[in-house]
Write a structure and sequence with these properties.
With 593 residues, the protein is α+β, with helices and mostly antiparallel strands. It has 19 helices and 25 strands. 33% of the residues lie in helices and 24% in strands.
Length: 593
Amino acid sequence: MSIRRLPSHLVDRIAAGEVVERPASALKELVENSLDAGATQVDVRLGGGGLDLVEVSDDGSGMSPADMALAIERHATSKLPNEAIEEVASFGFRGEALPSIASVARFTLDSRVRGSDGWRLEVDHGARISEGPAALPPGTRVRVEGLFAKVPARRKFLRSPRAEYAACLDTVRRLAMARPDVAFTLDHDGRRILSLAPVALPARVASILDHGLAEHGLPIDLQRGEVRLGGVVSLPTFTRGAADQQYLFVNGRPVKDRLLVGALRAAYQDLIARERSPIVALFLDLPGKEIDINVHPAKTEVRFADPQGVRGLIVGGLRSALDQAGHRSAARTQAAAPVNWTSELDVMRHPGEGRDLGEPIERPWPEVPAFAGTTLVNDDQRLFAAAPAARAEPATAPVPDHPLGVARGQVANTYIVAEAADGLVIVDQHAAHERLVLERLKRGAGNGGVAVQALLLPEVVELDEPDADRLEDAAADLQAFGLEIERFGPNAVLVRGTPAPLGRLDIHGLVRDLAAEIAELGGPQALKARLDLLAATFACHHSVRAGRVLSVAEMNALLREMEVTPHSGHCNHGRPTWVKLAHGDIERLFGRR
């Protein structure tokens, strides 16, 4: 087959495949054009998640009719006054966005320069159909309708309106964080979603990501030579269940770069649990000669001249800020769901009351009560008072033949120390109870569902609209674990019941973490994998936390249940729940062998 030159309309459609993957891609290009035009107000309107309508209006410099005609031609741009691509400071510079979008949609461009009349230009899938005067304030308005409507091969690969809307919302958030000095509004299907006034960077980041960052965030401001790192990061105790709120900007441009993501993970490596992710918005500024932005058509990837130096700056800057935070902690994530302990005296009076741990466990002594971690007690006066960091029990009775031994004390209110026939056992009470709760929930879900504790007053939990959509879709799966929810407006869900075995818990924190976990799945998953993930999140929220004081009777009950529970040797996240020092190991430690 001989080589031929492709027709212009086909070239435009090929270019559109590189630049315009989905409505969010078109929206990104249009908003970036508005910012490059010096806009101080950007208004976005979406219809059908962006599939039916994407409209961006701004109060920027505007364009003359002659410039508008050039703007819809390929490789025509005002952002490259010379050939020095490496010195480009604008968001875009390729001159491909508008002609690419106009080739796969019905495209309307209205613009007006201050002191002149407005002008309109209409293009239908690459063919210019009309132009003429238009009435609008100074600035530019771009309207994109029916994206890929006449390209069914591309349209069928787009996702649902909900998914496309979530991608558009994320795009606006990224660009709004990049330019906190610009006001933004976002309307979807006639409803106002975002309304952001010009503010300082930390306030803009907190208003978009999580208002708690104002209290639990750390400002970053570090400079090394010509490279500067700024932004806001969360405390290690103020995290999420998914890495969906980590935003990275290079020279003001939102990017997704593996180097930066890896550096972020290294900075928090030994400060947070593996299943948690910090909330981050980092801004890296460096000279244009030190970076190549022309490596991706959508400019979402970058290449650094000194990648290791950049990585070192990020890791060092974040670790320095986190170290200076000292003992600061985010109480909201640090505090566990209230566990209704019975007092030790009350437990001894009613040894069998309140047990809800599945099959009964035989014990050689009747006075040991059931582990009280799930006892439903409403009297807050019966909570344990503060106790010393370590307590011990006289070892007067012989050690029964139990694999995990008999509890002899508690160290740092976190670790149970037990004496076994063949050595010393140390148990992480939180990790162990987390596994026990998980297995109990999985058994309940497999036996017809976990019992539901109806709430006298239903709880309203406010969320982002995409998170509320995901929870609504997963309501049937959550019902299997005893969590009854229903949609309550566009940005909230109503919780009517919680899993009865868990007693009282932090409903708001649980629902938000469930939404984050479901978002991280990224699409349809096998039912068993999805149910296991939900069960693990429930278990983590209810488990006995480090720092809780346990009675000797409760510690023994926990040990006995561990002995009969599958997989109790490790927690839901792969960490060991107990370790043993054999008598020989102890003797070697003291030089007796």
